[in-house]
Amino acid sequence: MPDRLNVRNFIHGGDYNPDQWTDHPEIIAKDFEMFKEARINSVTVGIFAWDKLEPSEGTYDFSWLDDVFDRAEKQGCHVILSTPSGARPRWMAEKYPEVLRVDETGRRQLFGERHNHCYTSPVYRKKVQEINRKLAERYGKRESLVLWHISNECGGECHCELCQQEFRKWMKEKYKTLDNLNRCYWNEFWSHLYTSWDQIHSPSSIGDSNVLGLNLDWHRFVTDRTIDFFENEIAPLRELTPNIPVTTNFMGGNPPDSHVFYDLDYQKFAKHVDIVSWDSYPNWANGYETTEKLAAKTALMNDVMHGLKHQNYLIMENTPSQVNWHPVNRAKLPGMHQMGSLQEIAHGADSVMYFQLHQSRGASEMFHGAVITNKLSNKTRVFKDVKQVGEALDSLAEAKDSKRLDAKVAIVFDYDNMWALDDARAYSNQSKKYWETIQRHYKAFWDRDIPVDIVSVEADLSRYELVIDPMHFMMTTEFAAKLQEFVKAGGTLVGTYVNGIVDENFLTYLGPGMDAWLKTYGLEVTETDTLYPEQKNKLEIFGKTYDVCDYCDLIEPETAKTIGTYGDFFYKGTPAVTENKLGKGTAWYLGCRSDDEFLSDFYEKLAQDLNLALDLPVKKASSKVSVQVRQTKEADYFFIINFGHEEQNVELLRRTEDVLTRETHEKGSLVLGAYDVKVLKETR
């Protein structure tokens, strides 16, 4: 299947719901006029429109959608057609109540909200295929159709009896025998032995919630069941439109955490989409962190999405102004919309798309930002900001087929590990912070404009010079061996505290630990001291003293060399940071959670030792300025973005061309205004 859209320019568009305005054709006509003015070249239609497409069972009305295709094609606009499975119509829930989800306590949900469907229900699967087949038959050969958008923001779970039966089948296929299942779950604890497969039930607050292996397997099952539903849904599309790629919009976590999405394993799910797309909603201009810090978090989420398939991806949704679901829904400041949009292009996005193109007049998202607000005006600041981004993307058309620069650095992220560590009845629930730990390690490289890939445990590590594996609490022996081979072959590995503790079944390793892990790091961790939030230790290393919090591993070196020591508590003077030579490579172990100053100094040392710095045409004095690179065979495109509230000066080291303004910049000082973006081109 194609992994790129068959389009010439960057996609600029978003969710459009003309089904809400069919009684106002003059508004739809005006919308398309304004789309043209704002350089909108794509509309995503059909999301949540099932009741408009099929107002009663077996009765279809495509007239309004025909009109959208006609209008789009008349002005050279692309169409991304959504399948409507994210919100079933009311008539379906009334006639077939089994399509509604059941919660963990056994209560079937009433009709309402969205994604309130059982992903096992044979009725719902049949109905989804029927409507999708109708759409593919009617629009599959339209010249404007470039992409299928499957459902919307998949997530959630169902505990109905149909899903319980599938869960039991899933467990039986995985564990084969009850004896094996009981051993892997350590079910003799609290007399939890299964004596029949029929006794298996999903975790519940009124049932089992303390069998850790069960909790983890339920997470895995929910991902697998969602993917199975997805494959069922796209079957008619694969059959009738094999040349049209499919995607579904993945999500990042909500601010202020800026967390990776928790419900589904996107590393698994991404194998089933042709193009990764995601919904990006950083709350720029918030009151609790710097724009620079939020920019680093947003960059990381973009690199997560790029890393899912190691290919360009799409921004399926962002807001042109503000949202309606943050605790505080502040508008973007002047310049921030282009700043944020081009940051995502810089990291490998091939689109800037919005929720929404035309604001809803009522219901829950009526105050969510839109390109065309209910003022129906092209004079709003938001419309002008969107038009500016559209013009910038037109200027960047020559870079459409460029790709993000290959990374020499990888950070390992694993969903099983995230779920397991979060559920571990150990350490401190307040301070585990697995994702935040990844953010902190990532930022040390973002500050230095060094590209980073976020990789799964299945990744080919040989393409990297440096691999960082933070807080890998749940680690398989296979991955420990993989890390060992990476180091032996000449790679540099950095591991941290809370590492290699349990296997994939949530059982602790006995004795000192995995043999490969022990030989890679050349040490044994004998104990982990979990500190209270107000407690601090010290790390003494590189002739400096750094603050340490939360976790301190007590280390017994074997072949490892002690590089840094603890400065306080009963283990004062013992190893805190070690270095182990193995084969042609090196494994570092950071036994404690240090402050950002140490991470910055430590990774500066590694960056110099491994020659990780890029050959950039600019030299910057502040980490408020970020430089990212996209490449074609002919040229490099340097995206230089000021995430600061004040202007910043950078030094141009070589003569370059500004793609956005077509100016030629000579060597010397270049001024970036607040939230300013320059895209400089160097031809090879």
N-to-C terminal Cα separation, in Å?
Answer: 32 Å
Full CATH superfamily name of the domain at 409-609: Class I glutamine amidotransferase (GATase) domain
Task: Using the alpha-carbon principal axes, give the shape.
Answer: globular
Largest β sheet strand count, sense and barrel closure: 11 strands, mixed
Number of strands: 29
User: Which CATH first-tier class of the domain at 409-609 would you pick?
Assistant: Alpha Beta
Q: pLDDT average, as an integer?
A: 96
Q: Cα-atom Rg, whole angstroms?
A: 26 Å
Which CATH-level-2 architecture of the domain at 409-609? 3-Layer(aba) Sandwich
Contiguous low-pLDDT stretches (5 residues minimum) are none
Fill in the CATH topology of the domain at 409-609.
Rossmann fold
**What percentage of amino acids are in beta strands?**
15-25%
Task: Describe the SSE topology.
Elements: E1 11-15, H1 25-37, E2 42-45, H2 50-53, H3 63-74, E3 78-82, H4 90-95, H5 122-139, E4 145-149, H6 161-175, H7 178-185, H8 212-240, E5 246-247, E6 249-251, H9 266-269, E7 277-279, H10 291-309, E8 314-317, H11 336-346, E9 351-354, H12 381-395, E10 403-404, E11 409-412, H13 415-423, H14 434-446, E12 452-455, E13 466-469, H15 477-488, E14 492-496, H16 515-521, E15 523-530, E16 537-541, E17 544-557, E18 561-566, E19 575-582, E20 585-590, E21 592-594, H17 596-609, E22 618-620, E23 625-631, E24 635-642, E25 648-652, E26 656-658, E27 664-665, E28 668-672, E29 677-683
Parallel strand pairs: 1-2, 1-9, 2-3, 3-4, 4-5, 6-7, 7-8, 11-12, 11-13, 13-14, 14-20
Antiparallel strand pairs: 10-23, 15-17, 16-17, 16-18, 17-21, 18-19, 19-20, 22-25, 23-24, 24-29, 25-28, 26-27, 26-29
Helix pairs in contact: 5-8, 8-13, 10-14, 11-12, 14-17, 15-16
